[in-house]
Amino acid sequence: MLDKQLSQPPAALEALMSELRIGEAQPHLWEKLHAAAARDGKEADLAAAYRKFATDRRLKQLAPAIHAEVLMHAADYFQGVLGDPEGSEGFLRNVLEVAPDHLEAFKRLERKYEAAGDDLKLVELYAMVAATPPKPADEMARRAINIIALLSAKTPVSDDACKKLLALVPASSSLLSILEAHCQKTDRLGLACALLEQGLAGPGLPEARIVDHRRRLVELYLGPAKTPEKAMPHVEDLLARDSTDARARAAANTLLSVREVASRAAAVLQRVRRQSQLPPSA
């Protein structure tokens, strides 16, 4: 078929996939398949076959590396033969969904978004691969920080991407503050609180950052979030760290009037008063 007449592109594609399953990559035959489709006017047929195979249950049952390789061939075909960069982009994103550490797919998308000046797509690309970054995590975190800090309120990073970017916080703890500020700017107070909570529960935050973020959560819960009871565990933690923390003490006093946590607020205030009455050597 490849040398004479490509009558059935799906059959040829199926044959090459069978070769992949047994460990035979056959890169030259994939190139010949693409050339044969162009030669014989079967471009649309092969494109349809690629789209169908991309969602085929059998493909999803393959090892991630093989699955990703088929999708990379599809991306090559849509870009190189069809001249369809959007179609190619879709397949490259599918590659990263299957194999987030796939360096070539990542680099192609990164170059595309950089060339287009599409900062929002670029930062969402970093979010997609944050859990298993294909490039140094600290480099990706710094780039994400620089982009997010400059995004306007009209260009919000998606909720899902904000949550995925938390995986880069151990590489740069300031990313959490930038994400919280971005969510505030884009009028997503609930998400801002959720990100701070998740960031505190994860690894990688220095002690000073932990204190700062707990204080910030106390401010948000007692203030604009209007859920004061959620501030209680953070007040307790802050006073356990430093019983003289004036801001945490003031928050505890405020929480005495919140029925759900009044007893806890009273208990923590009683404890810090006892500690303040102990002699210095105690």
Topology:
Blueprint: H1 9-21, H2 27-39, H3 43-54, H4 57-60, H5 64-80, H6 85-98, H7 103-116, H8 119-129, H9 137-148, H10 159-165, H11 174-185, H12 189-201, H13 207-222, H14 232-241, H15 246-255, H16 262-277
Number of domains as seen in the coordinates: 2
Profile the largest sheet: none
- Based on secondary structure, the structural category is mainly alpha
Number of strands: 0
Radius of gyration from the alpha-carbon trace, in angstroms: 27 Å
On the 0 to 100 scale, the average pLDDT is 93
Per the CATH scheme, the topology name of the largest domain is: Serine Threonine Protein Phosphatase 5, Tetratricopeptide repeat
- Helix-strand topology string: HHHHHHHHHHHHHHHH
β-strand percent reads: under 5%
The tally of helices reads: 16
Helix fraction by DSSP (H/I, runs of at least 4): 55-70%
CATH secondary-structure class of the largest domain: Mainly Alpha
**What is the approximate shape?**
elongated
Outline the structure in words.
By secondary structure, the chain is an all-alpha fold. The protein has helices spanning 9-21, 27-39, 43-54, 57-60, 64-80, 85-98, 103-116, 119-129, 137-148, 159-165, 174-185, 189-201, 207-222, 232-241, 246-255, 262-277. It is 69% helix and 0% strand. It starts with 8 loop residues before the first helix and ends in a 5-residue tail after the last helix. Helix 1 (9-21) packs antiparallel against helix 2 (27-39). It has two domains: 1-129, Serine Threonine Protein Phosphatase 5, Tetratricopeptide repeat (Alpha Horseshoe), CATH 1.25.40; 191-196 and 205-277.
